[in-house]
Structures are given as C-alpha cells and as structure tokens.
Write a structure and sequence with these properties.
Layout: E1 6-10, E2 15-20, H1 31-46, E3 52-57, H2 86-90, H3 100-103, E4 108-112, E5 116-117, H4 119-125, E6 129-133, E7 137-139, H5 153-161, H6 163-172, E8 176-177, H7 178-184, E9 189-191, H8 196-208, H9 212-224, H10 227-244, H11 248-258
Parallel strand pairs: 2-3, 3-4, 4-6, 5-7, 6-9
Antiparallel strand pairs: 1-2, 7-8
C-alpha cells in the first residue's frame, strides 16, 4: 500500500523500512506524514512476515520536526480554533503518530541520517533503538519557536537522558552532535554516514533471527508501564501548545524563521 509522505519497503529477511519522504522539507512532520504513520504501523503490525522495522529519512535529513510553514497562519493554534469541528477540537492530540512505535509489538530501529530536530527528535526517541550517522545533529527546537516541546518529547527526552540534561536541552534549544547524543545515552552508536543503513540492517537482521514472540513480549512488557505517563504528557503538551501558539512571540518567531531572519526579541506575550 502507498502512503503519503512515506515509503514502506519489506525484504525477505523479515525487515521493513519506513522512510519519511518529504526531502524538500527535511522530512518535516506534515499532517499527511502524521496521518500515514499510524496506517503504515497498522500494516506492519498485521504482517507476520515483518519482525523488525527500520525508520529513516529520505535525502539528507531524518526529520526536521513539525512543518513550520503550517504555523504561519496560526496552523498550530488552529487545532483549537473555530474553523474546526467540535469533534476535532475535543481530540486530545491532533498528531496521531506520537505513540505509534511504542505500541507496535515489533522492534523499531531509528537510523538517524541527518537533522533530527523538535518533533523529529521525539519520533526518534519513540523508537526502541537509535543509531546515528556521524553527520547527524539534534535539537529540541520548540522553545526557539516560542512553543513547547511536544509530540511526546517532554516524556521521551527525560526518560532517555535524565531530567537535568533534558531540561538543559529543552530550555536552550541548542544544537548538539551525534557524538554528544551518544555521550548523553540518546543513541546507542554512531557510524560513518555511508555505513548507517548497513549497520541498521545488520542489527535488524540479528534481532529478526530471534524468536519473534519472545521479542514482541519483551518489548510490550518494557513499554507497558510507561504508557500511562506518556498519555498524560501528550494531554499536557496539547494544552500547553495551544496556549503558546496564540502568543505574539510565537508568530514573530515563525515569521523570522520563514524569512530567514534573526530570532526576534521576545516580549513574553
């Protein structure tokens, strides 16, 4: 089945590869990508021939986070605005991809091939294992757009790197390297750029060779105790995002980003 914004490929060794395919936007999470990921995950869940999933990005980026162009007209705030239906407004989150991979009862390996920013970092952290190429870089970028960390990032990041480090990364929005990510415990290994997919494939093959029911149960047990906390954080992130998206600071930040201008002086309103 074809999916908008995604490529899904399967090999004979039980490994499927999901490639985010919006390379002109560094694989930003568009609404189409957000809606396609759960559908692709459902297909993978039902396919007994698939034992391991690799997630990567087309072109030179892994995922640049939310599509900033949608924000220019208040797109983020629109999730609670008058132009949507009552049903849409009452949905806790407008981003159905946020917890797709933790709920998929098959191991998911993120092969991070380039920029992994904001919601893209959250997507990577929602995978079970992360391998980064040496040219990948990372940033918790939302605060620099006068928003809040979202897509589950306030849950996934402290879990991955600890509270103090997570707070520093969230508050500063500073870029850090693949080597930094490995030091923080965010990725398990860093490899040469041209070796990334072969390294991910080799690891996927070793996992696929294990008893699939045992692997799936091990994953389910590990994630199960975390789901209540993740659900609560997604609720809180949606609430906070709707507040932040209505501020003057946010709109000024988006305009500066789209116009490639320096960040504005924030007013706190």
């Amino acid at each position: 089945m074809a999916y908008e914004g995604l490529l899904l490929e399967k090999n004979d060794g039980g490994v499927a590869t999901v490639t985010l395919n919006v390379p002109d936007k560094l694989n930003a999470i568009t609404r189409e990508v957000s809606q396609s990921l759960p559908l692709a995950a459902d297909e993978l869940a039902r396919d007994d021939d698939v034992r391991v999933v690799i997630v990567t990005g087309a072109g030179r980026g892994f995922c640049s986070g939310a599509d900033v162009s949608m924000m220019a007209g208040g797109g983020v705030a629109a999730s609670g605005g008058p132009q949507v239906s009552r049903y849409q407004r009452l949905q806790v989150t407008g981003w159905p991809h946020c917890d797709v991979f933790p709920h998929l009862d098959k191991p998911v390996i993120a092969a991070i091939n380039g920029p992994c920013v904001g919601g893209g970092l959250s997507l990577a952290l929602s995978c079970d294992i992360r391998i980064a190429s040496e040219n990948a870089f990372f940033s918790v970028a939302q605060v620099s757009r006068a928003l809040v960390p979202d897509f589950g990032l306030t849950y996934y990041l402290p879990m991955a790197v600890g509270l103090s480090r997570a707070m520093e990364l969230m508050f500063t929005a500073e870029r850090f390297t693949a080597a930094d990510a490995k030091e923080f415990g965010m990725v398990s290994r860093v490899v040469a750029t041209d070796e990334l997919m072969s390294a991910a494939g080799e690891l996927a093959g070793r996992i696929a060779a294990q008893p699939p029911v045992s692997v799936s149960l091990a994953k389910r047990m590990t994630w199960r105790s975390m789901f209540d906390g993740l659900a609560r954080q997604l609720d809180l992130e949606t609430w906070a995002t709707r507040i932040a998206a209505q501020t003057e600071d946010h709109q000024a930040s988006v305009r500066a980003f789209l116009n490639k201008e320096p960040a504005p002086k924030y007013k706190g309103r």
